[in-house]
Amino acid sequence: MNTDVITAARNNAEWCDIVCRTHGIIGAFHTHMWTSRLRTPSHYPDAVTLDADATGENVLEIVDSATPGCSIKDSFACLNLLPAGFRILFEGDWILRAPEQPVSATGGDIRWRRVRDARVLPAWEAAWSGGEVATELFRPALLDHPAVVVLGGYVRDRLVAGAILNRSGAAVGVSNLFTTLGDHGDAWHGCVAAVARAFPVLPIVGYESGDALAAAHGNGFTSIGRLRVWIKEGGEAMAIGGAKAPPITSRHEAPRSDEKNTARLTLEHRLWHCTTSLANEPFRFQKLKG
C-alpha cells in the first residue's frame, strides 16, 4: 500500500475537519475514512477515504447521500459510486516534496508572510476566489489554530498570492494556492521557500491537476498517486461567491478532452481544492520572514 498517499490523504482529511469545525460542523475519523453526517461548507467533501480498504458502502452508510450535493473524496481513485447516483467531479494527483530537496532563494517581487490579522481574511478570500465577494469560507478561527498558517504573497502592500499550510503528524500540507499574476510556478516557488523556513524537516504534500500540477512538478514535487472527487447526481458543484459552477452532466457521459471540457474541469478543481491537516499535538511555528 502506498504509505505516502495514506499520509497525504490523512493530512487532507484533517484539514477538512478543521475547516468544518470552524463552521460548527463536527466530523469524525473512522478506521478507513473521515466523514461528516452534515453537509460540509462549500468546496469541502462530506467524506475523505484514508486508505484503499474503504468501500463505497461504508462511506454511504454515514454521509447524507439522500440529498443532492453530497461529495466524496476518493483518495485512492478506487471507488465506484456510479450506481449510487454520483459522477466524477474531477481527478488529480497527490503530490509530495521531500524535505531533503534543496530550496533556492525566492526570486521575483513577491514577498511571502503569515496572515495574522482577521481583517485581512476577506481580501485574501476575494483574491483566492478571483475577485468575487468573500463568503467567510475561511474564518478567523483558522488564524488561531495551532496546525494552520495562512500565507499571503505581497508585491509592496498589494496581496497577489496566497496559500494555506497545515501540519499533521507526518507532513505539512499546502492547499488553496493562488496567484493573481498568472504564474503558478512563481507562486509555488515562493510558497515552498516559506514552508521550508517554517517546517524544514517535514515533507510537503497536497494535490493538483492541470497547469498547477505541472508548476508543482517544476518546483520539486513528485506525483505519488491519483484521487477522484465524486458528487451526487442531481446536485450542483458548490460555487465561489454565489457564482454557479457548470451544470452536472449525466453520469453516463463519456469524458471529453476538448478545450472546453479542460477549462471546466480546471474550474471545478479550483472550486474543490482543499488539502491538509489537524495537528496531533501543539507546536510552535517559526516566524516567516519576507
Structure description:
- The chain has 290 residues and is α+β, with helices and mostly antiparallel strands.
- It is 25% helix and 24% strand.
- The chain is built from seven helices and eleven strands.
- Strands 1-2-3-4-11-5-10-9-8-7-6 form an eleven-stranded mixed sheet, sandwiched between helices.
- The relative contact order is 0.21.
Q: Would you tell me the overall average pLDDT?
A: 82
Question: Could you give a short account of the major beta sheet?
Answer: 11 strands, mixed
Walk across the major sheet and give the strand order.
1-2-3-4-11-5-10-9-8-7-6
User: What is the number of strand segments?
Assistant: 11
Query: How much of the sequence is in beta strands?
Result: 15-25%
Given helix and strand content, the structural type is alpha+beta
Give the CA-CA distance, first to last residue: 40 Å
How many helices in DSSP terms?
7
Low-confidence segments, given as residue ranges, are 235-290
Q: How would you describe the shape?
A: globular
Radius of gyration: 18 Å
Helix coverage percent of residues? 25-40%
Order of helices and strands: HEEEHEEEHHEEEHEHEH
